[in-house]
Amino acid sequence: FLMTRRVCPRHKDPWALADTLVSIAIFPALTGAALVACAETYHDVESRWRGITPAGRFTLMLYTSRTVLHVPVQSMQRMSRAHLFCMTLHHLLSVLCFGNGLLTGNQVFWGCLDTCCEMSTIFLNNLYICKEVTVGDKELKDLMPSWLYAANGFLLWLSFLVFRISLFPTWLYFWYRDVTESPSLTWDRSSALERYLYPSVTAMLLVLSTMWFVPVTKGMLKAFGIGAGSKAGKEAQADGKSD
Questions:
Q1: What is the pTM of this model?
Q2: How confident is the model at residue 52 (pLDDT cuts 50, 70, 90)?
Q3: Distance, CA of 53 to CA of 47 (rounded, Å)
Q4: Which comes out higher in pLDDT, residue 80 or 233?
């Protein structure tokens, strides 16, 4: 934050800019570790529900520490009260689930599988960089090749589709299948928090992601010059009105 205040003293939201710059390193590391942990522990019911590896522990520790620190940081950013409430609720529930996983070593695979959704955040953060970083009086997105900005928009949309819209129902399906097929290894050995909060939080993430997928899709179409929000779309609307 102090660096952004020094380098960009006139930035309208220095806390958001600082958060965006720090996230450049955090989310690729977090997503990479989560993918490795899932690959190491997906093989059978016992490993999915009781297995823990260095990559899995690192994923939970990094996510938990980053989320705890992000709660006060986001309160200093410019956002609506409704958005702040949703994000704070999401953070508190996530810390509760991940913290329990760190303490007990249970269901680390499922926590890491959920964390794979942060793949989309890598490209979302790139989008924020393009809008938050300014050179002179121009945003970075106005100075970079348009095809590069459009490519990031497409990758954001694609990663959102694969790692959120598809991932969370897959998580719920296989978690339920493990519970029904091997209750003695799963349900019977889980606490009430693990039985009910874990799938509930994943279902909540699916609902939120479905809502967010609409503006993500509109943004992707706009980046490609398609839709009402794009330059071509506005010109088409203007031609329609003149007719």
A1: 0.86
A2: very high
A3: 10
A4: 80
